[in-house]
Structure formats: C-alpha cells, structure tokens
Write a structure and sequence with these properties.
The protein is of the alpha/beta class. The chain has eleven helices and 13 strands. It is about 35% helix and about 25% strand. Bound molecules: oxa(dethia)-CoA (UT7).
Length: about 325
C-alpha cells in the first residue's frame, strides 16, 4: 500500500504591507472594526511586477529545497489560484517552463477559490497513492489585491496576496490518511467573481469579488463542523487524536468556532490571518509552512487541514506529518 506524505513546504509573501490604519485612509472603516470582526491586522500586497506565477515560483523553489529534491523529480504540478497569470496556458504550465522541466502533467485549479488548495492536495494525493507519480508540487498562489473593489469596505479589508507550496512524496507509511471534497452550487451567489466572457460588462464590475459575508459565515461554520465529523469518522479517530488544525484563514471567529469544535486550544491552531489576511487558496500552505518552519508543528503529529470558499466548495485532509 502506498501513501503520499508532506516532505517539504515553502512560501512567499510580497514585501509591501498594508495595515488596517492604511485602509482607514482609503475606505470608511476602522482598525477596531476589522480586528473585532475578522482578526486581521495587516496584509501583504504584491508589487506591480509580481504575479501569481512569480510568487508560485518562489514558494515552489523553497518547498523543493526543503524536500531535498530538484525540479526534474517533480511528476505533477497543480496550482490552485483564482488569479491566474493568463486564462491559458495554465499558471502551472508557465511555472513548469520556468523550472526548466517538461513532460509532467501541469494544470491550474482556478474554480474552487479558497477551497482550491484542498482540491489540489486531494488530486495529488490520489495520483501518488495510485503509484503513477512519486512527487507532486502543490501550490496555492493569489494576487487577491487585483480582484478587489478598493471602494467596497465589505471586501477590500479582508484579503491579501501570497503563495504557499507543498511537496507530496510517495511513502510506505501514512502520510495523508484521507482527503474529503464537497461542493454545493446552490450557494453560487454567496461568493463569486464574474467573468467578462459571460456577457459584455465593465472590467471593473467583472473583476471584483462579490460576497454576502454574513451568510457565508453561517454556512462555513455548519459545513466545517460536519466536515470534521466526516474526516475523523473515516479514520476511526476522535478529536483528541488531532494535534493541529491548519484552517483556511477567512475569519478568526470561524477559526475559533472550529477549534472549539475539536476541543483544541488556540495554541494548537496554525494562524496567519493577523499578519496576512485571507489569501484565498494560498492561506492553508502559508499557515502550514509557517508553523512547520518555526518549529511548532513537529514530525509525527496529526494535522487536520480544511478549506472552504466560492461554489460553495469545501474540503479537508487528515495528515500524519
Ligand atoms: O475565503 C472566503 C470565505 N470568506 C468568508 O468566510 C467570509 C465570512 N464572513 C465574514 O468573515 C464576516 O461576515 C465579515 C467579516 C465579512 C463581515 O462581518 P459581519 O460581522 O458578518 O458584519 P456584517 O456583514 O453583518 O456587517 C455589519 C456592519 C454593517 O453595517 P450596518 O448595516 O449594521 O450598519 C456593515 O455595513 O458592519 C458594516 N461594515 C463595516 N464597517 C466598517 C462592513 N464592512 C465594514 C468595514 N468597516 N470594513
């Protein structure tokens, strides 16, 4: 029996930081409102020359160095992004070319939004378990700052830019115990980004996130609670078996509710929200990389990864690190 295992992680954050106090000068908001309602203090914003591709490459090279492998070892590249370099070719194909490799499958998952990393992670896990590839490069990379309406205080204060990468490698020991994916298109209008290809419309209208935050908040708490039950039951484990929660970073109140559901103290939750905001599909690998590199997450510990976003789409993975 073969498993996949996390053997390396890497991340990249743009240098520029935008604080809540900076935002007070742009829209009618306050540091207190943003901190109280979301937990966010600041976010990173990509420079003009930076893209989801350039950030993905930096995160990928760090993850490969961490795993002790070279680009030639990679058997599959998946990039989760709602902000791709081009509509096509995929950002993953462009990255493949920049890494100087060819031949392996490379594709983007750009429709699962903030759940995109969990979808990418699950697909890579299946291929490695099946034995068809040995190493997969799984990335979440986002320039959310380019799809925000900077006059809309209900969305522009929430998001940030960045990239995170994970190398999954084949292993005889688990590894990834299980992954779980779901979607429910009946909630399609709760969070979406329109496309200029659908009908003639202004670029500004098409390229800005629309969100019913309050509705999404309630949906998230319900679906994630059920998702945790499903993930633990599939592995005949109890919540006391989970050492770490590595959640999508949307709102500290959602994360606190999920930690409570698992009876985990907040010290056992990988959080980057305060400094990074919501980086959509990049948020899970960014949080994972941070907690591994600063020594909080240790080898042999059991991690529960979860993400949710537009679709609605949501997913989880239970992992022995
Ligand atoms: O990654 C994708 C997943 N995204 C999420 O999961 C987001 C989930 N939702 C949330 O995180 C929260 O719903 C928000 C942080 C987006 C909003 O918090 P809330 O507690 O649900 O606030 P609300 O939407 O009910 O708005 C409360 C008030 C409103 O004013 P009135 O109508 O009560 O007068 C808003 O207009 O807060 C106002 N408001 C703001 N005030 C200051 C909304 N945005 C802001 C703002 N600054 N930035």
């Amino acid at each position: 029996m073969k498993y996949s295992k996390i053997i390396g992680t890497g991340s990249y954050l743009p240098e520029k930081v935008l604080t809540n106090f900076d935002l007070e000068k742009i829209v009618d908001t306050s540091n207190d409102w943003i901190v109280d309602r979301t937990g966010i203090h600041q976010r990173h914003i990509a420079a003009e020359y930076e893209t989801s591709l350039s950030m993905a490459e930096k995160a990928a090279r760090r993850a490969m160095a961490d795993a002790g492998i070279t680009p030639a070892d990679i058997g599959m590249i998946i990039i989760a992004t709602t902000t791709p370099e081009k509509i096509f070719p995929s950002t993953a194909c462009l990255l493949q070319q920049q890494l100087g490799i060819g031949g392996c499958p490379a594709f983007d998952l750009n429709s699962s939004a903030c759940a995109g990393f969990m979808y990418a992670f699950s697909i890579a896990d299946q291929y490695i378990r099946h034995g068809s590839i040995k190493y997969a490069l799984v990335i979440g990379s986002e320039v959310m700052s380019r799809i925000l309406d900077w006059t809309d205080r209900t969305t522009c204060v929430l998001f940030g830019d960045g990239a995170g990468a994970v190398i999954l490698g084949q292993s005889n020991e688990p590894g990834v115990f299980s992954t779980h994916l779901h979607a429910d298109g009946t909630h399609k209008d709760v969070l979406y980004l329109d496309s200029i290809l659908r009908k003639p419309m202004a670029v500004e209208e098409a390229l800005s996130i629309k969100m019913s935050g309050n509705q999404l908040f309630k949906l998230a708490v319900n679906i994630l609670g059920d998702l945790f039950d499903e993930t633990l039951a599939a592995n005949s484990l109890n919540k006391s078996d989970v050492d770490w929660l590595v959640p999508h970073q949307a709102n500290i109140r959602i994360i606190q509710a999920m930690a409570k559901k698992l009876d985990l103290p907040m010290e056992r939750v990988a959080i980057t929200l305060e400094e990074q905001g919501n980086t959509s599909s990049a948020s899970i690998p960014l949080a994972l990389d941070k907690a591994i590199r600063d020594g909080r997450i240790k080898k042999g510990e059991t991690l529960l990864l979860e993400g949710f976003g537009g679709g609605l789409a949501w997913g989880s993975a239970l992992v022995n690190y």
